[in-house]
Amino acid sequence: MDNSFWHKCWERNTLGFHQRDVHPLLSQYFEKLTLPSDRHVFVPLCGKTLDMAYLARFMQVTGNELSDIACKDFFLENNIEYQKQTLGAFEQFSCPQLVLLQGDFFKLSSKAIDSIDWIYDRAALIALPTAMQQQYVDHLRTFFSTQTRLFLVTVEFPKEQLNGPPFAVTESDVKSLFSGFNIEYVAKNEIKDKQFAQRTFEVDYLLEKLYIISLDN
Ligand SMILES: C[S@@+](CC[C@H](N)C(=O)[O-])C[C@H]1O[C@@H](n2cnc3c(N)ncnc32)[C@H](O)[C@@H]1O
Q1: What whole-number distance in Å separates Cα of residue 87 and Cα of residue 167?
Q2: Which of 13-17, 18-22, 147-151 has the highest mean pLDDT?
Q3: Is residue 22 part of a domain?
Q4: Is the pLDDT of residue 206 over 90?
Q5: I need a surface site. Which of 12, 27, 138, 214 has the fewest CB within 10 A?
Q6: Ligand 1 and 5: CB distance under 6 A
Q7: Which family does this protein fall into (predicted)?
Q8: Nearest CA to ligand 1 atom 24
Q9: Confidence of residue 168 (pLDDT cuts 50, 70, 90)
């Protein structure tokens, strides 16, 4: 899955992963899990998810996304005025509560982002083929400090029944990818109608799981 795959999705508007509502696990759990001192959430591979508008109600949001179309559309579709400026290899789209850095996540330095309390991952890890997932987690690790918690939403289905994306990530995959981290399994969302955002999958079961992951201090 290279960058051109994703650019084509955005150019052709084939965005089956895009949700028309805030993710239920986010609206159900995020506020309960935050601390009064939490100030900043980072959203890698953010697309134009409405989850960022939800997160911005609680704290400063920084998203990262490959596609220029996604970044522009996020602001246009939410009727938010934005400013644009070039920051090295990245284009920055911003309004007071929210910054989107457009460019390749694997080239983004954690030094470019202020202290991060939360990382929100819905359809970022699972968007990547298994062979790229460890590379993603290893780079994500550079954005962690001792106070950072990752709000990770995974998806599970019989791997042989669907060619991703999305790619199924089981609990044992999470343990192996995040080896050396603290991993707390929080909740599961069984998707009875097998609908994943705008697509319906013909699989025997489909479920999402929420984990909170932090550095093992
Ligand atoms: C499955 S979509 C999920 C988007 C968003 N998290 C959501 O829930 O709607 C994956 C997104 O990752 C972006 N992406 C893929 N590879 C990337 C990379 N190397 N750097 C930054 N963004 C990337 C794609 O353009 C796409 O918008």
Answers
A1: 32
A2: 147-151
A3: no
A4: yes
A5: 12
A6: no
A7: Belongs to the class I-like SAM-binding methyltransferase superfamily. TPMT family.
A8: 6
A9: very high
102 CB less than 6 Å from ligand 1?
no
Q: What is the pLDDT of residue 216?
A: 85
> Is residue 33 a part of any domain in this protein?
no
**Looking at residues 19-26, what average pLDDT do you find?**
95
Total structural domains in the chain?
1
Q: What is the ipTM metric for this complex?
A: 0.99
Asked whether residue 35 is domain-assigned, the answer is no
* CA-CA-CA-CA torsion sign (84, 90, 96, 98): positive
> In sequence order, what DSSP letters do the residues of 170-212 get, joined into one string?
-HHHHHHHTTTEEEEEEEEEE-TT-EETTEE---S--EEEEEE
Neighbours of 53 (CB within 10 A): 17
Q: Is the pLDDT of residue 188 over 90?
A: yes
> Binding site for S-adenosyl-L-methionine: what residues are annotated?
10, 45, 65, 122
The boundaries of the domain holding residue 95 are 3-16+41-215
Known binding-site residue numbers:
10, 45, 65, 122
pTM above 0.80, yes or no: yes
